Amino acid sequence: MENQDSCEGEIFVGPWGCSEGNNKWGDYKPKGGIKTIIISYGDVINSIRFVEHGSNEASPIFGDDVGRKIATINIECPSEYLTGMSGCQSLYPFDYTGRWVIDSLSFQTNVRKHGPIGPGSNFSFSFPMNGGKIVGFHLRAGNYLNAIGVYVKPFCRASSCALNPIDDPVEIQEQIDAIKDAFPRDPGPWGGISSGKKWDDGVFSAVKQIQLHVYERANAMNSIQFEYVTRDRRRVWMPRHGFNRGGIVKKIDIDECKNEYLIGVAGFYGPVDGINNGLDVIRSITFYSNKGKYGPFGDENGTYFSSISSRGKVVGFHGSSGSYLNSLGVHVEYF
Questions:
Q1: pLDDT reported for residue 151
Q2: I need a surface site. Which of 19, 20, 113, 168 has the fewest CB within 10 A?
Q3: At the top level of CATH, which class does the domain 11-154 belong to?
Q4: Does 11-154 match 187-334 in CATH topology?
């Protein structure tokens, strides 16, 4: 059975909606679990607030509590906890700013789904959390809920070695090899796996540079190219994957002199109106190293994906591409 204790450290995902504007950001990160979510809504989500497990007092209101309807989500904390969130966003004409607002929300727990709450639109987002739970929220609101993101914590897995110490180095190595074999060796690819031409850069010693072409008009990744370090310490560029039609070029340089290396990639994929025959493409990418993160680059809308499930080092990429970057996966050297 999986140990449900949360590991140290939080990961922030999102936000979805409008991340710009004059409205202030706010955080809600209770020490206990979240037992109640209260949403005021009408044509859009007007406001949201929370009640912490072990307390009867609601949090401050994020937004304006003037919605025509009130929805209350009760979570049977601590046995029930949040594991995902999805929703929709739209350009609300009565906001007078031309910015996005959240118009629908759904919450998934380890037991059931709550929602959807609100009318919804065609511009959806989704975040499922596998192997962890949502422990807080990052929000921006004025008259309406403009943006929302989540703080998540992965679950720690109980270690059998901690209960049964092993002194024999050969037996220790055998258990390490068994643990490695329990994890998938090549996570992904994620995205439009049935479209585009498949490619695989192979496995190297490390990733040195990344060049990413972001096509802003379509909110999608045009192409991607990697420079790797070989086992004999040579640097080699692999072919570009996708089509270079201009747009913004993002360059990432992994600093080996500071013992930096890639540990994972996350992002969003989904269809974009008017391009690629409605097939899924990579819409946003964030690269994570042992020193920090690069990104997000692109439009954080669609279906969320992440390769960060265990400790390891990214040593290569694979995927598919055509006119756009259709899918992306990683080769990982596990520790």
A1: 86
A2: 168
A3: mainly beta
A4: yes
pTM of the model: 0.50
CA distances from 256 to 27, 38, 293, 294 (A): 35, 48, 15, 16
DSSP summary character for residue 58:
B
Could you read off the pLDDT of 281-303 as tens digits, one per residue? 999 999 998 888 898 888 888 88
CA distances for 203 relative to 139, 279, 318, 319, angstroms: 40, 28, 10, 14
Instruction: State the residue for tokens 């930096």.
Output: 260
CATH topology of domain 187-334: Vitelline Membrane Outer Layer Protein I, subunit A (2.100.10)
Peptide bond into 15 cis (omega under 30): yes
160's tokens: 């059998």
Give the number of residues written for the chain.
335
Q: How is the chain split into domains, by residue range?
A: 11-154, 187-334
The rounded distance, in Å, linking the Cα atoms of 69 and 155 is 36
For residue 280 the two structure tokens come to: 């899924």
Q: 284: which strand partners?
A: 268, 298
Where would I find the beta strands (DSSP E) of 64-159?
69-74, 82-91, 100-109, 113-117, 124-128, 132-141, 145-154
Bridge partner residues of 333 (DSSP) = 313
Short-list 153, 120, 111, CA closest to 135: 153
- For residue 173, give every residue at least 6 positions away whose Cβ sits within 8 Å of its Cβ, in sequence order, or none: none
